[in-house]
Design brief:
The protein has six helices and no strands. It has about 140 residues and is an all-alpha fold. The protein has one domain.
Length: about 140
């Protein structure tokens, strides 16, 4: 029961709300940049570069607005932030690829399928990422 209360408090907090707003901004820039990259490279590589755009934007905004009182050095924060997000990347890439290339094209145009598949995939790790960044990346914040 105590564990359940802690989990509820973790996700029903102003900090998590800020994480969602900041993450939303990063996700939108991540998602939109995929279209720009896809103009001159394959969908798979466009997802890779767009993911890096999202990570960079998310780090800067999270450090400033969600976890400004971290006890770690900026270098340590960067290391753990990128480690956690790179760790999630294979899951996001596979989900985007499966949804965008295999599942959704049966129901919509190829471009719509790719856009929707990528959009869903980048939303999947939000809850795990918040907890990892709160307790590891930006420790003490």
């Amino acid at each position: 029961m105590i564990a359940a209360r802690r989990i509820i408090a973790l996700y029903f907090s102003q900090q998590f709300a800020r994480f969602l707003v900041v993450g939303g901004i990063a996700v939108v820039l991540h998602w939109l940049s995929r279209f720009a990259f896809n103009a001159f490279m394959s969908y798979g590589w466009a997802i890779v570069l767009a993911y890096l755009v999202g990570i960079l934007v998310a780090f800067v905004l999270n450090r400033a607005y969600v976890f400004p009182y971290s006890e770690r050095s900026v270098e340590a924060e960067m290391f753990f932030f990128f480690l956690i997000n790179i760790g999630a990347f294979p899951f996001v890439w596979v989900a985007a690829y499966v949804l965008g290339e295999w599942l959704f094209p049966a129901y919509m145009s190829q471009q719509a399928a790719l856009a929707l598949g990528h959009g869903i995939a980048i939303l999947l790790p939000v809850f795990v990422n918040f907890a990892l960044h709160k307790f590891i990346t930006f420790q003490g914040a």
